[in-house]
Amino acid sequence: MQQTRPAGPEAGAPLLALSGVGKRFGNQVTALEGLDMEVRRGEFLSLLGPSGCGKSTALRLIAGLAEPTSGRIDFNGEHPGKAASPHPSVGFVFQEPTLMPWASVFGNVHLPLKLAGTSRREAEPAIMQALELVGLEAFRDAYPRELSGGMKMRVSIARALVTKPRLLLMDEPFAALDEITRFKLNNDLLQVWRQLNCTIVFVTHSVFESVYLSTRILVFRARPGRVAAELAIDPSLERDEAFRTSPEYVALCRQASTALAAAMNAG
Amino acid sequence: MALRITHRLENSPFRWALPVAVLGLVVLGWDLVVRLNDLPPYILPGPLRVLDTLVADRTVLLGSLMVTLRTTLVALVLAAVGGGALALVFASARIVEFSLFPIAIILQVTPLIAIAPLMLIYLSTDTAVLTCAWIVAFFPILSNTTLGLNSVDANLRDLFRLSGAGRLQTLRLLQLPTALPYFLGGLRIAGGLALVGAVVGEIAAGSAGQGSGLAFRIVESGYRLNIPRMFAALLLISLAGILIYAALSLLSWLLLRRWHESALGTGN
């Protein structure tokens, strides 16, 4: 199993940066205030924090689904959230699978390409490739109701991957799944990340999940939401079942937990 | 325990045999009451007498059935098109919804039988009957479809935005499929109501028109004390209602069977 990613010429360069970003809802709720963070090309970045700390809001701002009230977001190159281009370079995975119940697995994965004007036949190779990445090529004609929770989430991931995005945004995608399914999907996601050589921003409230997956963790504090701590994890560590029980993993988890506890007490 | 018995019943032939047997017993009881009391047909005809009348008067009655069915179906189609279209307008402009919804509600809550005589003054008999049927069928389709169009999953809406979907694409690929089960539910209610509306309209028109629908036959037969024919016409109205309901249920099942919860069996 390959463990180190082929470092491209641009690996590590900033893909986008948020500076002094604030987001208010109405006059009462301040979700984010003075948020500074950057996303680097090719990294697996986790945003870790308690519920209500604004990490999902930050993700929506990066996606362009909401506008910041203050501060600015700089994209290196074109705005990845701007969908004017025929192949939007951002993929988004929600906490729920968010599939269209009236469409087959194939139809659901086709959606982003269909909206960009690509016909079923033209899109078929890309769709099948995305389904193969998540191991669901045999279920192309199944309907969402016929699938388990984990399989639905795989379809959702395939849909986000079908446009070959440079940036994959994931909002607590595995929070509703059982632990066994979650471990399996964690491994599969890492494999997809290595194969596609894309950048992932992953929102989670699980210390263990963030340490297992990430090359870098940003710990958020709440009220108002901002980055409280940063934790880098050696990308060359092999992420497998042995890693889950290794002393390094435990030490990293303790570090992340301590940072999270400090962030929560600071609020 | 009760659950297990119900479940077993679901799959047994008794599920069909029981209601048929109960219905048969009711008809048998009716027949016995007529025979034992030696009731004359102008008081209460027995079931066989009703069937005889149905066969004997088939030309008149089937002709009337066609008239009533035609009114009902035309009203239903117009209500489906009109209600669906207005719901689309409502969904795209909330201000229109706020302005027009009260009028739709007033039309719905005012008893149709009270409006019908007025409509007969301003409209020709046929148009008035059709309008009666249309008014009652319109509202359930409008309100259900509006509810459906407003029930779009928020995340899916975000996903469409993120993929740069246009307004028309969002309507066609997201809002319409979301609203379809709601629309079909409204259509099923409207089917029964359109028949009621047509019957009410025909009764209100009474002898005023050359109307020859089933309800008109009932009124006419009542004046002539032809009670068996009243029953025969009533039987046909019931059959027409069952037919409409069955046809719309079939349509709903055909459109939703692949994906919607309502069209799925209990599974396993």
Automatic annotation (TrEMBL), chain A:
Keyword list, A-Z: ATP-binding, Nucleotide-binding, Transport
Q: Where is the ABC transporter domain?
A: 16-249
Regarding protein family, the annotation reads: Belongs to the ABC transporter superfamily.
Gene Ontology molecular function terms on file: ATP binding
Could you tell me the superkingdom of the organism this chain comes from? Bacteria
- Tell me, what's a Pfam family for it? ABC_tran
| PANTHER family with a match to the protein in the record | ALIPHATIC SULFONATES IMPORT ATP-BINDING PROTEIN SSUB 2, TAURINE IMPORT ATP-BINDING PROTEIN-RELATED
Task: Tell me the organism.
Answer: Ancylobacter oerskovii
InterPro entries per the UniProt record, alphabetical: AAA+_ATPase, ABC_transporter-like_ATP-bd, ABC_transporter-like_CS, ABC_transporter_ATP-bind, P-loop_NTPase
Name of the protein in its database record: ABC transporter ATP-binding protein
The record, for PROSITE patterns, names:
ABC_TRANSPORTER_1, ABC_TRANSPORTER_2
UniProtKB/TrEMBL annotation, chain B:
Question: Which spans are transmembrane here?
Answer: 12-30, 73-93, 100-122, 128-149, 231-256
Per UniProt, what is the membrane topology?
Multi-pass membrane protein
Which segment of the chain is annotated as a signal peptide? none
| Subcellular location(s) per record | Cell membrane
ABC transmembrane type-1 domain location is 65-252
Check the record and name the Pfam families matching this protein. Answer: BPD_transp_1
Matches recorded under SUPFAM superfamilies? MetI-like
The record's family statement is: Belongs to the binding-protein-dependent transport system permease family.
Q: Which PANTHER family match?
A: ABC TRANSPORTER PERMEASE PROTEIN, ALKANE SULFONATE ABC TRANSPORTER-RELATED, MEMBRANE SUBUNIT
What is the protein name for this chain?
ABC transporter permease
The organism that produces this protein has a lineage beginning with:
Bacteria, Pseudomonadati, Pseudomonadota, Alphaproteobacteria, Hyphomicrobiales
